[in-house]
Specification:
single chain, about 250 residues, alpha/beta, Rossmann fold, 2 domains, four-stranded antiparallel sheet, 10 strands, globular, binds adenosine-5'-triphosphate
């Protein structure tokens, strides 16, 4: 379905003399889980920043067949392109529900405060509940976010990205800080998200997670895509192995 999902063509980001992304062509179809992997500093987060409008880029970004590269970040979000942040962007002193409502409410933070006892509370609460169920966290709506484990905070970040309109979600290192059991459970959640028809771009250094859950992977090195194919093909590709300094892919866990 060439007209749906997310598609970048010739996406290029320059930081002074450094070309952090070079002519990146990448697509994520609805319902597809796509991995973006590469060594530290390869340009993966830069790609997420460029696609979502948080850094300036040249080239095309299309969502559901429409160009969005001239839009501000919040308008891309409103079209259904959502992301998580590596460092976690949650407000530790707010409840889980409040953190998610801020993202789900079209009016943002001020509208949530204004609406604390308003008519939209019911529907927002439902959106929060649905988003939390999708990541397997039921019943923690009123927990203060900083009281959660790091793993759970990461999942709240994912729930927050899923709340409201969402066509394609970009997950930037969502498994960092999760133990192997949590990471396995997270993989199940990602599959469920994609089964619901969302496109997922997964960036992570946990190779068993990425190669285990993705339908296709892209490998980036020095800002360029050096490989695209199935996880099985990635495991044996000489360029991919060279990018990971000859370390067998299964044991790579940066
Ligand atoms: P990691 O796996 O460590 O998160 P990454 O693949 O996400 O790395 P980026 O963070 O996108 O890589 O960085 C790509 C390159 O761009 C690096 O050389 C980095 O130092 C540089 N870079 C990133 N952000 C900026 C910025 N705002 N200004 C200048 N250079 C930047």
């Amino acid at each position: 379905m060439p007209n749906e999902g997310l598609r970048t063509t010739g996406l290029t980001v320059r930081y002074g003399g450094l070309v952090a992304n070079s002519e990146v062509d990448l697509h994520v179809e609805p319902g597809e889980i796509v991995g973006l992997i590469g060594p530290n500093g390869a340009g993966k987060t830069t790609f997420v920043d460029a696609v979502t409008g948080f850094t300036q880029a040249e080239g095309r970004v299309e969502l559901a067949g429409q160009r969005i590269d001239a839009l501000a970040p919040h308008l891309r979000r409103r079209r259904g392109l959502t992301r998580t942040w590596q460092s976690g962007e949650l407000f530790g002193n707010l409840t889980v529900a409040q953190n998610i409502e801020v993202a789900a409410s079209p009016g943002g933070f001020r509208a949530v405060l204004r609406d604390l006892f308003g008519r939209r509370r019911g529907s927002l609460r439902e959106v929060v509940g649905r988003a939390l169920r999708t990541v397997g966290l039921d019943g923690i709506e009123d927990t203060v976010t900083r009281d959660l484990s790091l793993g759970r905070q990461k999942l709240v970040g994912v729930a927050r990205a899923l709340a409201g309109t969402c066509e394609v979600v970009l997950l930037d290192e969502p498994a960092a800080g999760l133990d192997s059991q949590e990471s396995g459970e997270f993989a199940d959640r990602v599959r469920e998200i994609a089964r619901g028809g969302l496109g997922v771009l997964l960036i992570d250094h946990d190779m068993s997670l990425v190669l285990g859950v993705c339908d296709r992977v892209y490998v980036m090195e020095f800002g360029k895509i050096i490989f695209t194919g199935t996880p099985a093909e990635a495991r044996t590709d000489p360029d991919v192995i060279a990018a990971y300094l000859g370390v067998p892919m299964e044991s790579t866990h940066a």
